[in-house]
């Protein structure tokens, strides 16, 4: 058995393996796994005639099943000094492509230049299903050079879209099922410290198994809420 080359001729060297002839059946067992998408040509002799047969092993069909499940903050109105986004995927993702596949677009259709802190060690959770995307802190903190020269990545009163490119591949090297877009409006900066004393408690009646509800009265970090 030989590999069929692009010009239609058989390769010079045969595929290594063993063959067996038993009960009028010729069986060839390759030493190494045959490659999907490759055509092979087997030569054999029947009586005095030389015959050949070609077989192609099809490439496996990869179906895109991974997509963006959720993005936090989930609110439609976000502060102009927003610190981060959390992007949740339905399956583990590949590393090294995050800042090629995530774009921030303003209401005029223009891509915001360098809004995020692009680091080599992408901030994934252990399952590689949640990515933390940080805004450049130098553009958020007042009184520092990037903030004074470039300004915030987000401007109050303007609309933006965060786009996730469907060409981004998951851990199985398969592209996302579809692209993802989150549209939001930017409000005033939030620089007030969290005040737990202002939280409201809906306390269940004694002797019941009803839930205790804590009304935070503001949007808080989704990942930190689940952790702590």
Overview of the molecule:
- The protein has about 230 residues and is mainly β.
- About 10% of the residues lie in helices and about 35% in strands.
- It has a four-stranded antiparallel sheet with strand order 6-8-11-10, with no helix packed on it. A four-stranded mixed sheet has the order 7-13-12-9. A three-stranded antiparallel sheet has the order 1-4-5, with no helix packed on it.
- A hairpin with a 5-residue loop joins β10 (about 125) and β11 (about 130-135).
- The longest helix is centred in the last third of the chain and has 6 residues, at about 220-225.
- The chain is elongated and about 95 Å long.
- The termini are far apart.
- The model has no long low-confidence stretch (mean pLDDT about 90).
Return the average pLDDT rounded to an integer. Answer: 89
Rg:
29 Å
**In whole angstroms, how far apart are the ends?**
63 Å
Enumerate how many helices there are, as a single number: 4
Question: What is the chain-wise order of helices and strands?
Answer: EEEEEEEEHEEEHHEEEEH
């Amino acid at each position: 058995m030989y590999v069929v080359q692009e010009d239609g001729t058989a390769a010079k060297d045969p595929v290594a393996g063993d063959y067996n002839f038993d009960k009028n059946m010729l069986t060839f067992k390759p030493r190494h796994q045959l490659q999907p998408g490759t055509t092979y040509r087997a030569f054999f002799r029947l009586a005095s005639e030389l015959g050949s047969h070609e077989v192609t092993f099809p490439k496996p069909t990869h179906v895109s099943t991974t997509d963006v499940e959720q993005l936090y903050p989930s609110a439609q109105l976000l502060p102009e000094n927003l610190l981060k986004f959390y992007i949740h995927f339905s399956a583990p993702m590949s590393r090294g492509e995050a800042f090629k596949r995530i774009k921030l677009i303003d209401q005029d259709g223009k891509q915001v230049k360098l809004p995020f802190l692009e680091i080599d060690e992408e901030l994934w959770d252990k399952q590689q299903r949640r990515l933390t995307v940080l805004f450049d802190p130098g553009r958020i903190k007042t009184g520092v050079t990037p903030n004074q020269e470039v300004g915030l990545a987000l401007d109050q009163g303007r609309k933006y879209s965060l786009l996730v490119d469907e060409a981004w591949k998951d851990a199985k090297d398969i592209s996302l099922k579809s692209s993802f877009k989150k549209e939001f409006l930017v409000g005033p900066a939030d620089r007030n410290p969290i005040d737990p004393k202002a939280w409201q408690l809906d306390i269940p009646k004694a002797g019941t198994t009803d839930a205790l509800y804590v009304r935070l009265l503001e949007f808080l970090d989704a990942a930190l809420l689940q952790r702590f």
